[in-house]
Specification:
The chain is mostly beta strands. The protein has a single domain (5-100), classed as PH-domain like. Helices cover 14% and strands 47% of the residues. The chain contains one helix and eight strands. The relative contact order is 0.21.
């Protein structure tokens, strides 16, 4: 059995175990987003001093797992990160893209 992939950064934890993607973030309350890895889509929205990562589902299984937000998006979970942290998240989602056989935009 393979070990779960765990990514922890600031108040965010992501786990991928047996094909299931789970996102946890600690704010005033604990929020969770859970879905099959093959369905995950993350759109990055640049703001003034931070970035928003919008988590939702793909419509096409060949869609990139991670990319810039080009228009409005319906998200099931949103994480705000400092701009300086984006390369850390991009590297992690690049690893997940390779694992799931999907591109990264």
């Amino acid at each position: 059995m393979t070990e779960p992939i765990v990514f922890e950064h600031a108040n965010v934890q992501v786990r991928v175990d047996r094909g299931i993607f789970e996102l946890f973030q600690r704010r005033n309350v604990v929020a969770c987003y859970r879905t099959p890895l093959d369905w995950v889509r993350v759109h990055v929205q640049v703001r003034r001093r931070a970035m928003l990562l919008h988590f939702s589902h793909v419509e096409d299984p060949d869609e990139p797992i991670y990319g810039r937000l080009m228009n409005s998006v319906y998200s099931l979970a949103t994480v705000e990160i400092p701009m300086s942290d984006e390369p850390v998240y991009r590297a992690f989602f690049t690893e997940l893209a390779e694992l799931s056989g999907r591109p990264i935009a």
